[in-house]
């Protein structure tokens, strides 16, 4: 990859500010931008905001968002080839991963039925609970940010929930015993299980697809590469897995992530 003179200076500056065995991108890049008056470029993320539509089908540069309202008041949203962001009538925002869909109905209870993977930023309304039914998993909140992943999983999980902010109830269905999750917590409902199991250490990068970045905090390089491998569907080998990494990396450029890690930690990483 050919880098411009400014990009070379940017990288040189960043590499001077990493700690032995760790790499703090936020501090290094922040100092460089402050010193040189550089404004960050917008993230290259395909997100489209569409609201206030009762029945529509919209095509945007090859990305489909289908909406339809039926006679019972359910409005259906389906994301096609890329993630889509949509604002619900109550002000809540939902981000659908590609291939996901949901239906919503806003009455005494704000009802959501979904398939796939969806991130929710729920507008608080104590008079109307917000309930998500993911076909075998149930979540109830008043106002918070969380992800429900009910997509096909190779580990046999029926559904996963990660809470970015606030508090949620996660159960098999509305009448079943559940678990309370707060900020930074996650839980998994296994196939055939009656009660979700709280994860000992929830994966903050389970929402990297929605946030647009990976976050690592003194994370062993092996775990970093496992995370990148799962996200990009490639495998890696490295010359030294004993080092640790701290920092935040945008998800839109894997080659740049690898280049920065190699330079910062003095390792060689090979994709295969």
Strand and helix map with partners:
Elements: H1 5-15, H2 25-36, E1 49-50, E2 56-60, E3 63-69, E4 75-79, E5 84-87, E6 93-96, E7 101-106, E8 110-115, E9 117-121, E10 130-133, E11 138-141, E12 145-149, E13 157-165, E14 167-171, E15 178-182, E16 186-190, E17 197-198, H3 208-211, E18 213-220, H4 221-232, E19 236-238, E20 244-250, H5 254-265, E21 269-271
Parallel strand pairs: 1-5, 8-10
Antiparallel strand pairs: 2-3, 3-4, 4-7, 5-6, 6-9, 7-8, 9-12, 10-11, 11-14, 12-13, 13-16, 14-15, 16-17, 18-20, 19-21
Helix pairs in contact: 1-2
Question: Can you offer a commentary on this structure?
Answer:
The chain is of the alpha+beta class. The chain has two domains: about 5-45 and about 210-270, Phage tail protein beta-alpha-beta fold (3-Layer(bab) Sandwich), CATH 3.55.50.30; about 50-205, Jelly Rolls (Sandwich). The protein has helices spanning about 5-15, 25-35, 210, 220-230, 255-265, and strands at about 50, 55-60, 65-70, 75-80, 85, 95, 100-105, 110-115, 115-120, 130-135, 140, 145-150, 155-165, 165-170, 180, 185-190, 195-200, 215-220, 235-240, 245-250, 270. The strands form four sheets. It has a nine-stranded mixed β-sheet, with no helix packed on it. Helix 1 packs across helix 2. The longest helix has 12 residues, at about 25-35. The protein is elongated and about 60 Å long. The protein starts with a helix and ends with a strand.
């Amino acid at each position: 990859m050919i880098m411009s003179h400014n990009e070379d200076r940017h990288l040189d500056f960043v590499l001077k500010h990493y700690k032995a065995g760790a790499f703090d991108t936020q501090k290094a890049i922040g100092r460089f931008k402050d010193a040189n008056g550089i404004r960050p470029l917008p993230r290259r993320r395909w997100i489209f905001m569409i609201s206030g539509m009762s029945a529509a089908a919209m095509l945007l540069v090859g990305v489909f968002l289908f909406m339809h309202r039926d006679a019972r008041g359910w409005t259906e949203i389906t994301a096609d080839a890329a993630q889509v962001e949509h604002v619900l009538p109550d002000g809540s925002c939902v981000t659908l991963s590609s291939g996901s869909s949901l239906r919503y109905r806003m009455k005494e209870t704000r009802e959501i039925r979904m398939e796939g993977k969806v991130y929710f930023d729920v507008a608080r309304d104590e008079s109307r609970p917000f309930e998500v039914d993911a076909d075998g998993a149930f979540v109830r909140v008043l106002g918070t940010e969380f992800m429900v992943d009910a997509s096909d999983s190779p580990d046999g999980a029926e559904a996963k929930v990660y809470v970015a902010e606030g508090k949620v109830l996660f159960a098999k269905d509305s009448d079943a015993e559940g678990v309370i999750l707060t900020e930074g917590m996650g839980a998994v409902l296994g196939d055939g299980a009656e009660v979700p199991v709280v994860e000992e250490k929830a994966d903050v990068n389970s929402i990297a697809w929605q946030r647009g970045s990976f976050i690592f905090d003194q994370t062993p390089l092996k775990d970093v590469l496992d995370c990148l491998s799962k996200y990009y569907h490639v495998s890696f080998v490295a010359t030294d897995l004993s080092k640790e990494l701290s920092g935040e990396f945008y998800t839109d450029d894997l080659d740049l992530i690898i280049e920065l890690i190699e330079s910062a930690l003095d390792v060689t990483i090979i994709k295969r």
